[in-house]
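Long-time lurker, first post. I've been practising inverse folding by hand and with some scripts of my own, and I keep getting stuck on stretches where the structure tokens seem ambiguous. Below is the full token string for one chain I'm working on. Before anyone asks, I'm not after the true native sequence, just a reasonable design that respects the backbone. If someone could post their per-position residues I'd love to compare against what I wrote down in my notebook.
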């Protein structure tokens, strides 16, 4: 058999195997995709049921807490009213009781219970009930927690909604101590709203809402104790088929709840799933059935299309394989031996063949490729060595730069600190410094070197060292900045380099911040319950621009709860995919939602806001943050 015949046969066999395998794989994938879609729907519905159950309880608890706060306030008002009525207006007990009953008729409060020093409710809206707190004789009396109010003048008790002891109605009670003398002032509310909320968003109503949608034939919620929710079926569902399918799955309920695995059953066109879930009160499972006839039609239609496409491809492939075999068989035979040797790495070997023009062109191209490949291997080895050396140097530079920054933030009484720095490349031109001075003062510095990458990183490290050197015996910030400017000019002789810097000293005993700004973006002052704003826009030239900066100290007195956010322009100049800037307004808007937040929370909020704005777009500048917060309670 000739090479040409073998190539044609091999091509046809490969084509048939490929098409057959593709057909089988596609058919299986269609079936699995349809099954996975229904399984995904069942799992999603189970998660929704779990969330609804949690939401039901959380809403009831939140509502109970809100109502409880209101009831405490109402009890406090009642305490004031009784004090005024008895001691100033000199109203009788009957008149006071009548006023309290008028209040219950016009408000959400259903009952008032006001006692004397011994706990006897002599003022009450339930006239037919004689009641003394703490004397019910029950083991866990509903009124017993309120007895402590007789022993204090500023106590308050809030009780969750529970069935009342003498008639079983669900009531919520709250009470406070008397103002003029030891007494209990209690208000009661029948918790109808809480019960209506729980009934209004239970799983049964959710089950009824999904039936008949997305091919759902039936749904039932199952729980381990057997007290299951009612099953809900679509009007067109075959109850006999569903019953057969559900019976086998219900028997697997204990195993499903224990292992967490989903079970399924297919009976005719009905596809049923038993999916485990975890609710607020324990595990449960969702039994759900779908009408799978539509999915079967989809798979059959897809299989038919694949058969037609396969037949067409097979015919075209036969024709092309014959032509292709003729065009490549002879050149392949002639270069096969030499190609094996070249494949072993002997790139200096040349292929010599005769024949038609195409054969010679193939040989020449093959020879040119081997020469180029040999040269490429040599160049690749050199480039790999050079790249590894550069990467090693960058890693060392990054480690050196990180070592210049404070490894641990200083700890100072009454102050919370946080810092973050992210270079645009492996190394960057941002730097910051926080040091605890010997006299108990805190020194803060943040700066930004013009440029980025390795040159900016070297200047940033040099600038930080120079500023530390300038501040060793500086009497004030003005002296430090002027010395730093002169040292920077001497150290950097080439023009065009400068450093923006914000330096500050914080006195925790006076909550006084003294600062100097040398061309740096003004920090943001976040005062409690106030809109954030720049601390001051007054600034002098950056370091390295002029010989004398004439820097002037500025001061601001901070209060407990205030935060100062120092940042570099990489924050405000961050860009999205359309090259729009993040800007100061977005930063102020982000900080307006950080009232009361700690420094780490503020850093996290700014980072998330910038990342959300940029959307993963590569940034061209370094990002740095330093946050100081006054917290005298932590002193």
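-- Answer (accepted) --
I ran through it position by position. Result:
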């Amino acid at each position: 058999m000739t090479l040409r015949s073998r190539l044609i046969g091999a091509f046809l066999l490969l084509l048939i195997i490929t098409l057959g395998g593709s057909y089988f794989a596609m058919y299986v994938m269609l079936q699995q995709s349809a099954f996975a879609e229904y399984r995904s729907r069942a799992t999603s519905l189970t998660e929704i049921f779990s969330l609804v159950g949690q939401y039901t309880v959380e809403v009831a608890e939140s509502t109970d807490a809100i109502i409880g706060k209101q009831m405490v306030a109402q009890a406090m008002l009642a305490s004031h009213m009784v004090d005024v009525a008895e001691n100033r207006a000199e109203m009788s007990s009957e008149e006071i009781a009548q006023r309290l009953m008028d209040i219950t008729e016009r408000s959400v409060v259903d009952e008032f219970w006001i006692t004397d020093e011994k706990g006897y409710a002599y003022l009450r809206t339930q006239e037919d009930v004689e009641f003394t707190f703490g004397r019910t004789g029950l083991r866990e009396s509903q009124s017993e927690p309120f007895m402590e109010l007789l022993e204090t003048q500023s106590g308050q008790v809030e009780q969750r909604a529970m069935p009342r002891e003498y008639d079983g109605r669900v009531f919520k009670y709250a009470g406070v101590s008397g103002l003029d003398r030891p007494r209990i002032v209690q208000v009661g509310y029948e918790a109808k709203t809480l019960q209506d909320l729980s009934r209004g968003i239970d799983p049964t109503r959710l089950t009824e809402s999904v039936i008949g949608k997305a091919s759902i034939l039936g749904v039932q919620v199952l729980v381990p104790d057997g007290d299951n929710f009612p099953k809900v079926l679509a009007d067109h569902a075959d109850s006999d088929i569903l019953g057969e399918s559900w019976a086998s799955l219900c028997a697997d309920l204990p195993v499903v709840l224990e292992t967490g695995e989903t079970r399924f059953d297919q009976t005719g066109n009905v596809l049923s799933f038993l999916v485990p879930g975890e609710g607020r009160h324990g595990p449960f499972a969702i039994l759900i059935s779908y009408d799978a006839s539509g999915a079967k039609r989809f798979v059959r239609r897809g299989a038919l299309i694949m058969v037609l496409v396969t037949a067409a491809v097979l015919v075209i492939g036969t024709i092309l394989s014959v032509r292709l075999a003729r065009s490549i068989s002879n050149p392949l035979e002639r270069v096969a031996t030499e190609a094996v040797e070249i494949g072993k790495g002997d790139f200096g070997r040349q292929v010599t063949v005769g024949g038609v023009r195409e054969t010679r062109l193939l040989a020449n191209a093959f020879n040119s490729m081997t020469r180029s490949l040999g040269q490429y291997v040599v160049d690749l080895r050199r480039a790999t060595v050079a790249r590894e050396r550069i990467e090693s140097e960058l890693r060392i530079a990054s480690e050196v730069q990180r070592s210049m920054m404070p490894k641990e933030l200083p700890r100072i009484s009454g102050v919370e600190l946080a810092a973050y720095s992210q270079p645009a490349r492996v190394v960057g031109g941002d730097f910051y410094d926080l040091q605890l001075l010997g006299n108990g003062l805190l020194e803060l510095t943040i700066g930004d070197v013009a440029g980025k990458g390795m040159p900016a990183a070297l200047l940033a490290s040099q600038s930080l060292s120079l500023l530390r050197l300038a501040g060793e015996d500086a009497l004030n910030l003005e002296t430090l900045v002027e010395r730093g400017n002169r040292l920077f000019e001497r150290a950097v002789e080439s023009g065009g380099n400068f450093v923006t810097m914000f330096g500050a000293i914080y006195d925790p005993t006076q909550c006084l911040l003294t600062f100097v700004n040398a061309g740096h973006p003004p920090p943001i002052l976040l005062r409690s319950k106030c809109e954030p704003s720049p601390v001051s826009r007054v600034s002098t030239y950056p370091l390295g621009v002029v010989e004398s900066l004439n820097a002037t100290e500025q001061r601001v007195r901070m209060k407990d709860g205030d935060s100062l956010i120092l940042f570099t322009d990489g924050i405000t100049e961050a860009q999205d995919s359309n090259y729009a800037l993040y800007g100061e307004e977005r930063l102020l808007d982000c900080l307006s939602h950080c009232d009361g937040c700690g420094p780490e929370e503020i850093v996290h909020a700014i980072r998330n806001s910038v990342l959300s704005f940029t959307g993963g777009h590569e940034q061209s500048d370094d990002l740095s943050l330093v946050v100081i917060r006054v917290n005298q309670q932590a002193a």
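A couple of notes from the structure itself: Residues 3-87 form the longest helix (85 residues). The chain is about 45% helix and 20% strand. Happy to go over any region you disagree with.
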